[in-house]
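ok trying this again, last paste got cut off
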Amino acid sequence: MKARTAFLVLLTAGVVGTAAWLVFFSPVLGVRSIEIVGNLTVPSERIKQQAAVADLHPLATVDLAGVQNRVLGIRQLADAKVDRVWPGTLKIQVVEREPIAALQVGGKVAIIDKQAVVIELKDTLPPLLPVLKVDRPAANDPVTMAALQVIQAVPGTVSAKVREVRATSAEAVSLELSDGRTIVWGGPDRPQEKARILTELLRRKAAVYDVSSPDVVTLR
């Protein structure tokens, strides 16, 4: 009886040991493919290279947080989630940064997202992005962040016409349209009210539309 028990213990230990070897050390359950999801402009191959996971590396021992941190080293990406998909796939789901404005810096044009992160540098201004003009453009600058909030609040029917966004303070943001008209938006407060009122006002002919105080709007 004792011999049988000992045999079963050894057999169980052998099975467990083999299973552990297969999962944690063997290439049998290694990474055979990397699936990239959510990318539109960043090539999948670039993300795979940045992930730096060797072929057939045991899937169970892949450092998911490490892969995420490496992938987020690509400045065009705002977020990344890494998961194991058994038996041999590493899935990387990414969220790309969305460009919303351009900054002229020296002889280059910096394309930035809503958090004032520089996505890329270009030689010329993109045709559909407004130029942001503030004194000290930075992610920790209240004036910059107020202007970016205003850009996001502008109604879709108007945003494509915005050529330039100026801000002298966080409460003094104005927009210049491609047809020469000016919108005085003020601060980023009450964005929905301002957007609704502006949509109505733009149907009337004027040079300046002031919605900085939605309770008392003016046309000039």
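PB: full thing came through this time. The CA atoms of residues 42 and 191 lie 32 Å apart.
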